[in-house]
Prior knowledge:
This protein is mostly helical and about 160 residues long. The chain contains 3 helices and 2 strands. It has one domain. Helices cover about 70% and strands about 0% of the residues. The protein has a two-stranded antiparallel sheet with strand order 1-2. The longest helix has about 55 residues, at about 105-160. The chain is rod-shaped and about 100 Å long.
Amino acid sequence: MPNLPFRKHRVTLLAALVGVMASVCHCAQGRTTALHNCVSNLRIIEAAIEEWALVNKVPATNSYSLSDTNIINCLRQQVMPECTEGGVYLAGKTVQDEVTCTVHGSLSTYLAIYEERLRRERQQFITRVSIIMAMIGLGVVISIGWWRRTRRISNDQLRKSS
């Protein structure tokens, strides 16, 4: 059985490939999830401020506080959301100004950063996929080489025995 040692290598190669693919997906997901949660919270807070301002007929130039119970009552769960990375939400100077997070910034900042981050993550993903594809290709080449070698050995043995 000359093919037996190769089976061990094939199993190891497949396990390594599955591990690499799983880590690529997990790392990419963890980085963006906290940012998306914060942006979602910023949108929720800004919607509550807009609703509060419309209902109470507050001019856009007035100041406000995020601890105002009337604004908190406009939130779905009537609790001020928290940034998952420990940031603090700060009110704008006036009703028309954006709410900001001390970690992630404001929504307008997020859009500019998000486009750049998305472009970078796409490029990293393409690089990782090409590395994985190269590893798979290398595994196929090695498999074919081992198969041809073992096939040649078995054919040579058959010729010698007959």
